[in-house]
Amino acid sequence: MIDRRNYPCNGVVAHESLRGFLEGVPFVEGDLHSVVVSVAHLLSGPEGALDRQLLYGDGFCVLQEVSGYAFGFATPSGFVGYVAVDDLGAAVQPTHRVVTMGAHVYANRSIKTVPVVTLPFGAKVIATDQADGFWRVANGYMPTPQIAPVTTLEIDPVATALRFLGVPYLWGGDSNFGIDCSGLIHAALRAVGRDCPRDSDQQEAFFAYAEGDLQRGDLVFWKGHVGIMADADTIVHANGHHMATTVECLVDVKARILAMQGKEFTSIRRP
Q1: Residue 159, exposed/middle/buried by CB under 10 A (0-12, 13-18, 19+)?
Q2: CB-based burial, 99-118: b 16+ in 10 Å, e otherwise
Q3: pTM summary value
């Protein structure tokens, strides 16, 4: 069965990687672009449902433009969908990433000026010269403590997940402006340099089963939901019940999901 999330074909055009696997559509290599807004929505179709989000500086390979939207796939994840054309610009090679839970870009080297834009945790920028406590970026200046070289990694995915506490729940969300359960896991693991698919079913299939007792960093899955263990008893998860990222006792979460949705957890995985 074809999974449209990783299938770069919309019936009108297909990526060159599918040549030999289907017929009747033109194949293109596509053109690489970068996201130029704080957060771009990756949709299931033009003006369709929100599948996930891309952050400033993320790459997107455009295969076709239609009705103001670009069809293609995110790089390097390969997640397929539609992004507003106006949210994309020329491809860049970022040098730094945002390491705080949001960072302002100022028009001048002063925190007393009106921000040009606010970027989320994990957004990527090109930073050139550094002076007076600021880095120069494409559209202004960013305080030095808020960005670090893109090669700088977080140490602990659980600690990273805990930084999202209180962030509003957003289906398909991928930032500290709004995030969903699998988006939280994706952000936490990618921040420490671990490969991680975007959606919970993909994550459950990707990681190995946990052996032994529950431990910090284990992933607990239900159908359509996932959380990360802070310790043997406590789970961190973005959830629709609280409409936020919260820390709860695992036994309480298991009982609530079973009572409200009739779902038992499906597996425990260890990244």
Answers
A1: middle
A2: bbbebbbbeebeeeeeebbe
A3: 0.95
Domain 157-269 coded CATH 3.30.450.20: no
Place of tokens 């006792």: 249
What CATH number does the domain located at 4-90 have? 2.30.30.40
4-90 shares its CATH topology with 96-149: yes
- State in words which class domain 96-149 has: mainly beta
Phi, psi of 260 (to 5 degrees): -85, -35
Alpha carbon distances (Å) from 155 to 5, 166, 187, 216, 271: 30, 21, 13, 13, 14
Please write the tens of the pLDDT for every residue from 134-182: 999 999 999 999 999 999 999 999 999 999 999 999 999 999 999 999 9
Phi, psi of 85 (to 5 degrees): -55, -40
CB atoms under 10 Å from CB of 140, counted, come to 18
Q: Does residue 198 carry a pLDDT above 90?
A: yes
The pLDDT, as a whole number, for residue 107 is: 96
- Sorted by where each begins, the domain ranges of the chain are 4-90, 96-149, 157-269
